[in-house]
Amino acid sequence: MGPQWAPVPMTDPLTVQTSSTAIPGAGEPGDYAVRTSVVEVPLDGTTVEAQLRVPVGADEDVPAVLFVHGAGTGRYVDAFVDQAQALASAGVATLVPDKRLDTYTARHRDYVAMADDYLHSFDLLRDVDGVDPDRVGVYAESEGAWIAPVMAVEQPDVAFVALVSAPVVPPRQQAAFAVDQYLRNTGVPQQVFRAIPRAVGMSLPGGGFEYADFDVAPYQRRMTQPVLVVYGTGDASMPLVQGAEQIIRDVAIAGNPDYTVRYYRGADHGIRVDTVVDPVFLRDLTGWVLGLPGTGSADPRVAGDQPEQLYWAAPVAQPRWLGNGDVLVFLVLGAVGLIVLLPLGRQALVGVRHLRGLPRSHHRDEGLARRLAVLSASTVATVVGLVFYLYGVARLALGYERNGWVVQGGWLVVRVLGLVAVAAAASVVVRLRRLRAAGQPLAHGLLGHAVLWGTCAACAALLVVLAYWGVYQLGI
């Protein structure tokens, strides 16, 4: 009913030219005192604050770097503190604006519009006293690497671009890749991987999320500025090899020979090692900026720790069935609601008739009633168990943790519950056939038939959903 998950192994890795990340021809960093101030950046419809750092006592106008946030709230008090301070003390002015949040939600993100917002900060930084307006560039991290190429194309005055932990591929594609890597690190059973394209590929409940298919490649293919590409080899969420290779190909299409790629051993998504921003990275970043334009095309182009990427981050197949998140949620919640409410409604009605002194309705078949109760309870328990299992695995995966009791034991529990539900469904079918063969009524009255067939239909729908999400795979 849905796409399988069979990522293609990467067999042609990008080979580093040297293990040293040092930038040939890097500019000599200064040792300046830093003047820090908070400025306001007017945007269309709102204003954000930004922290400006300017080296004090420079003999000439200095280059400058504007920082573009990754995913999240993006406050200047928390973001890029080490990078901005290192650059400023070495002789590079920096500006870290607060991210605009009134147009940024989980459902809606417009990267082109966000680029326009950040360009307001770029224009402000170019006008700062002591800043060379011809040497102002952009540092973008993670999600921000989908924004910076748009800025570079729309504003040719952007002097250079540093793309750090860049996803490069569209968000949906990167999300599937990241989930795959996290699950492999967590050690989940192979059957669980089936859920990746079915979850990531479907249209998510409530609509929105159009940005999931945003493709930055057309903008990268028009970038003419020098580009610094940085990854940490301890970052499992990014396509380390594929991302760099695509950026190299894309800027080549623009006729741009100025690229530099660096990999830092054991560094994570924020280029941190043991929670501290890698000082070697800060040295290289500063030297690359100060040494431009010469450092833009200096050899070696690709250097540092040898990156590894097991699989390609490929386009995600769209599910044919249950590919609409709204339908899936409606189906599951509606089925669970029917299972819970129908028997309660019948019991309430019987109780009302008894209190009013009216005769009770005909007794139902107790054997069938017990079987329906077991079917209802086991089916709902399997759904709840699957949800909690996926939540537990997600927490482990995001924390780079392993827990065999949760990962293996939890999956076993879910599958056992699922088998109990199937056995209960079979017993209901057997009982219904025996009652029909004996000429006995399957239910009494309209409400009795509604409870019987409504419960059966709801449980059948949930069993199909559970099968769709892999509970009944045989591993073949």
Automatic annotation (TrEMBL):
Highest taxon, organism lineage: Bacteria
TM annotation in the entry: 327-352, 372-391, 411-430, 450-471
Molecular-function annotations in GO: carboxylic ester hydrolase activity; serine-type peptidase activity
Record keywords: Hydrolase, Membrane, Transmembrane, Transmembrane helix
Gene Ontology BP, a term: proteolysis
Domain Peptidase S9 prolyl oligopeptidase catalytic: 112-288
Key word Transmembrane present: yes
Protein name (record): Alpha/beta hydrolase
Pfam families given in the database record: Peptidase_S9 (PF00326)
InterPro entries named in the record: AB_hydrolase_Est10 (IPR053145), AB_hydrolase_fold (IPR029058), Peptidase_S9_cat (IPR001375)
Gene3D superfamilies on file: alpha/beta hydrolase (3.40.50.1820)
